[in-house]
Design a protein that fits this description.
single chain, alpha/beta, ten-stranded mixed beta sheet, disordered N terminus, disordered C terminus
């Protein structure tokens, strides 16, 4: 049957939410949601007792179809969801009948047995009353309400709403149908409680879904156009569509997503190897700029665990066809395959190099004034994220764990939850998470948070980022903090800018539990040790020390980015040399600035400013045998970086904002392994500051403090240097990269046991 038979008119599904559109088994929900999404001629109206604010979390859930209209506040509010504005003149007519919240609340004060419900609402006042008292008050309540031009809607013999006279779910829906000039026979109403009764008396086909309140079933018995369905929730709505011959729902089943075989699916922006086209063939090579996290993530597959590594690959028309799957390393990881998500160069440039860096990165790092928003780019970002979600869904075995990495994949969880509700979704946020008021600047904050709340577990580096996330959620959605945990002794609480005393570890929203954790990434100490043992690095250390001579070496290694505070660092160094002229000729700053990709043009002005600052300092203060700043604007091989760590007297890391900063940990590891006593001067706005007790913390926004703390480090006595380094190395060595990955995955899996315990508690309470 065609969607437009037997009528050429669109179909409007007007449905209650709790117990109806949000209920039913997973298969029925998936089928109904797909049907609504797939067909523009099926319109959707949510008709609910919730207030407008309580609807927002559902509107932000990408796993739910977005309604065309919302009738909320038991009919007192009617909105068009395209702009969330009232539908006029319907809303004005309702408003004209409402005496005002304060007038109603004052009138109800004469009934001390009424308890005002603390829920978001407009043009109504909701109360609770003990059934024994309510039965004796009804006549008087009705009379007082009538004197205000209002009516009382009773529910479950204990709840009551004071509403404008004549306003109900059914009356507002009927007015909306008239306003839209819809055919009543093509309007299907659905509900499950007595609050929905008014919808069934307006001449529309209706369904009381399975498990409806007995009072609703009794009130609608004998109504020819009302079906009492067997199936609960969405299943009952699908039954009604077929019963009333509105459309053949079976013809619109969602596409099947058959489970794969991977018990662990790693979704990361980089493949575990690089591919190059050589003589028309695809050739794999190790990463030219490897980071320690890739070997750590690969280690989870060393035991032969069936797994998949999902990452993008750029399509190239001149290259050989791109296979969907590839074996990673049959000997080392026998059960692991790489799954390619093919993207065009344009998609990569927009999704990763432009939009992520121009829209998200500034907000994430609290530089909101630099953010540039584009709806077109946002649409492409969501499209790419859907591709990743579909690839992960196809690879995951039943009940598998899918581990997602970083903000570039913010929208994957919601799509993945829709496609594979059986899998466990874990997300690790590699960057910082900003405060709630700054995150709220993002035009798509509700969709992003709604997607992250589709996860089972969300991990951050430090408690402050986790708390910022919780605050953002709480300022956007009605959510319950179920559990909290103290941050000491592992993390600083009041000792740095990113300290926090405790953090939420479990949130409850719309019946789902989302757990939260703090897991600062560690460094690969074993890899650093192996590097130090090479003749190349030993020779490089000696060469660097010879070039510096007897001077003290202050080292800074940063990526070119406005968040890193490089200009502020140079200005502070110049200030120190001016204020302490005895240091001139005695200290050399080696500044390694890793350039951005050439497509990231937003960093070009910053690079010019840095080069000008270096030129000014060296031009003013250089001597024949001494250059204050040695500047390298290039990527150094890891072996060379390790050699510089070993040769340095002070590591000066002063980002204005940073999610963690692994460079700080690498320096500590190198110094610990060579028996050094190098001093770490670290911005208190770097995530690592909450963990690395023993660093000299500095405020990079305060030029005087930057200069003062560097001078403190240079003047520090050997015993204090040794004590600080010993403490730091103990932290870094214990919480290394392998422990980070292991503890994160253990925290994700521990939710299974916790869910079983909670279920047992609830069952015991119910019994």
């Amino acid at each position: 049957m065609s969607l437009l038979e037997p009528s050429s008119q669109p179909l409007l599904l007007a449905t209650d939410l709790d117990g109806t559109f949000l209920a039913g088994d997973a298969d029925a929900r998936k089928r109904l949601y797909h049907l609504v999404d797939a067909h523009p001629d099926v319109k959707l109206a949510w008709v609910t007792g919730r207030g407008r604010e309580a609807i927002l979390p559902l509107l932000a859930d990408p796993g739910l179809p977005t309604p065309d209209y919302v009738i909320c506040d038991v009919g007192a509010t009617v909105l068009r969801t395209a702009d969330m504005q009232p539908i006029q003149p319907l809303q004005s007519r309702i408003e004209a009948c409402w005496p005002g919240e304060h007038v109603v609340a004052e009138a109800m004060r004469r009934f001390p047995m009424l308890v005002r419900q603390e829920v978001p609402q407009e043009r109504r006042c909701s109360y609770y009353c003990h059934p024994g008292h309510l039965s004796t008050l009804r006549d008087e309540l009705d009379a007082v309400a009538a004197s205000l031009g209002c009516e009382v809607l009773y529910s479950a013999d204990r709840y009551l709403d004071i509403l404008p006279r004549g306003v109900r779910k059914g009356s507002t829906l009927s007015a909306l149908v008239d306003e839209l000039a819809l055919v009543p026979a093509r309007v299907l109403v659905a509900g499950d409680t007595l609050n929905d009764l008014s919808m069934y008396g307006e001449g529309f086909p209706g369904v009381c879904v399975g498990d409806s309140e007995p009072a609703l079933l009794a009130a609608t018995t004998g109504m020819a156009d009302v079906l009492h369905a067997d199936a609960a929730g969405c299943g009952g709505i699908l039954q009604a569509m077929a019963h009333f011959d509105l459309l053949q729902a079976d013809d619109y089943a969602p596409p099947l997503h058959q489970p794969g075989k991977a018990e662990l699916v790693m979704v990361y922006h980089r493949l575990p190897y690089e591919e190059h086209i050589v003589d028309g063939e695809r050739v794999r090579k190790p990463h030219s700029s490897p980071n320690g996290i890739i070997p750590s993530l690969l280690s989870f597959f060393a035991d032969g665990r069936p797994g998949s590594w999902v990452a993008w690959t750029v399509e190239d028309a001149k290259a050989p066809p791109l296979p969907t799957h590839a074996v990673v390393d049959r000997a080392a990881y026998p059960g692991l395959t790489a799954t390619h998500v093919p993207l065009t160069k344009h998609e990569v440039d927009v999704f990763y190099k432009r939009f992520s860096k121009e829209a998200f990165w500034p907000v994430i790092n609290s530089f909101w004034e630099r953010a540039r928003f584009s709806e077109e780019d946002w649409a492409l970002f969501k499209h790419v994220n859907r591709r990743f979600a579909e690839a992960a869904a196809a690879e995951a075995a039943p009940g598998a764990t899918v581990w997602l990495h970083d903000y570039n994949l913010w929208m994957v969880p919601s799509v993945l939850r829709e496609l594979r509700p059986d899998v466990k979704i874990a997300f690790f946020h590699h960057t910082q998470f900003p405060s709630a008021d700054i995150f709220a600047i993002l035009p798509w904050r509700r969709e992003i948070l709604g997607s992250l709340l589709a996860c089972d577990y969300v991990g951050f580096h430090i408690p402050r980022h986790a708390e910022n996330f919780t605050d953002a959620v709480r300022s956007t959605f009605p959510v319950e903090v179920v559990a909290r945990a103290a941050c000491a002794p592992r993390f600083l609480t009041f000792g740095c800018a990113v300290g926090v005393e405790d953090m939420a570890t479990e949130l409850r929203i719309d019946g789902r539990t989302v757990r939260i954790g703090a897991h600062p990434i560690g460094t690969d100490v074993a890899r650093i040790r192996a590097c130090l043992e090479t003749d190349e690095v030993e020779a490089d250390i000696a060469r660097i020390r010879e070039e510096i001579g007897g001077r003290r070496l202050v080292l800074s290694i940063e990526r070119l980015d406005y968040t890193k505070g490089i200009l502020q660092k140079l200005q502070a160094f110049e200030r120190l040399l001016d204020e302490a002229p005895e240091l001139q000729g005695e200290v050399t700053l080696v500044l390694v600035c890793v350039p951005a990709a050439k497509e990231m043009t937003i960093y070009r002005p910053l690079q010019q400013q840095i080069e000008q600052a270096v030129g000014r300092i060296n031009g003013r203060l250089s001597r024949l045998d001494w250059t204050p700043v040695r500047f390298f604007a290039r990527v150094l091989p890891f072996a060379s970086v390790v050699a510089h760590y070993a040769a340095a007297d002070v590591m000066w890391i002063t980002p204005l904002r940073d999610g963690l900063n692994l460079v700080a940990k690498e320096f500590v590891a190198v110094q610990g392994l060579v028996g050094g006593d190098g001093v770490l001067v670290l911005s208190e706005f770097a995530g690592a500051a909450a963990e690395l007790k023993g660093a000299v913390l500095t405020n990079p926004h305060d030029p005087a403090d930057l200069a003062r703390t560097l001078r403190q480090a240079l003047a520090m006595l050997p015993t204090e240097r040794e004590d600080r380094q010993r403490r730091l190395f103990g932290i870094v060595r214990h919480h290394d990269l392998s422990r980070w990955g292991r503890e994160f995955l253990e925290a994700v899996q521990s939710g299974d046991t916790r869910d079983e315990v909670n279920a047992a508690k609830h069952a015991a309470i119910a019994a």
